[in-house]
Amino acid sequence: MTAFDSERARFNMVEQQIRPWEVIDPRVLDVLQRVPREQFAPPAYRALAYADIEVPLGHGETMLAPKIEAKLLQALAIQPTDRVLEIGTGSGYLTACLAHLGGHVVTVDRHADFVAEAQARLAELGIGNVELLTGDALAADLPGAPFDVIAVTGSVPVLPERFQALLNEGGRLFAVVGEPPAQEATLLTRVRGEVYRREALFETVVPPLTGAPKPAAFVF
Fold first, then answer.
1. Contact 155, 178 (CB under 8 A)
2. 125 touches 144 (CB < 8 A)
């Protein structure tokens, strides 16, 4: 895409997809206008980077649709000093948005090629407040814990207690919880100690997080 086309596509994405989904936080809208999403999409899909679709990345993974990413960013109310954990780096686009909004981002992905490619894209854009890790967020020790914000980029049948335990008091976690076709975007806030507040945001369906725990089977 030419620079002019990219700018127009970015503007149209915000005005035709993001705002109609009631994303009105000016900091979120500014980030979505600034970060060049096409630079994070695979070359074959750059012309579709701003479309209302999940762009394929390989390994059976996708970029989330732009409006889902926008709702995630708004729900988390990220502050400039927040320590952020992203579970599922993917293309690195959402990582870049989180880095613009927060103080420091730790992002982890199972696929080493995703991590390497995201690191290169972030470096090209001069984004340096990100620590990229290859591994399983369900098992690995994660530097920087506890976190003020956690963004889970794949759906989970049930929310892992490990993720909840990684939250600071007052911290917020966004995840899509449930199994198709009944999934719900959820905001979890750690009020204090082991007291959490859970808020249902909207219904959607997104691809699963690889390795997410399954709910216990019901036995008659």
1. yes
2. no
Of 72, 82, 130, 90, residue with least CA distance to 106: 130
Q: Residues 6 or more apart from 22 whose CB is under 8 A from it?
A: none
8 A C-beta contact, residue 169 and residue 47: no
pLDDT tens, residue by residue, 22-54: 999 999 999 999 999 999 999 999 999 999 999
Going by pLDDT thresholds of 50, 70 and 90, the confidence category of residue 216 is low
When divided into structural domains, the chain yields a total of 1
Q: With CA atoms as reference, report the closest residue to 94 among 129, 119, 69, 120.
A: 69
**Which residues have a Cβ under 8 Å from the Cβ of 150 and sit 6 or more positions away?**
84, 85, 86, 87, 163, 166, 167, 171, 172, 173, 174
Q: How far apart are CA 141 and CA 166, in angstroms?
A: 10
CATH code of the domain covering residue 170: 3.40.50.150
Q: Give the gyration radius of the chain's Cα atoms.
A: 17
Residues whose CB is less than 8 angstroms from the CB of residue 206 and which lie 6 or more positions away in sequence, other chains included? 54, 64, 68, 154, 155, 176, 183
* Residue 40 domain boundaries: 3-204
- pLDDT per position as a tens digit, 132-154: 999 999 887 888 899 999 999 99
Tell whether 219 is covered by a domain. Answer: no
Burial code of 64-73, b = ≥16 C-beta within 10 A, e = fewer? Answer: bbbbbbbbbb
Note the pLDDT tens digit of each residue in 164-211: 999 999 999 999 999 999 899 999 999 999 999 999 999 999 999 987
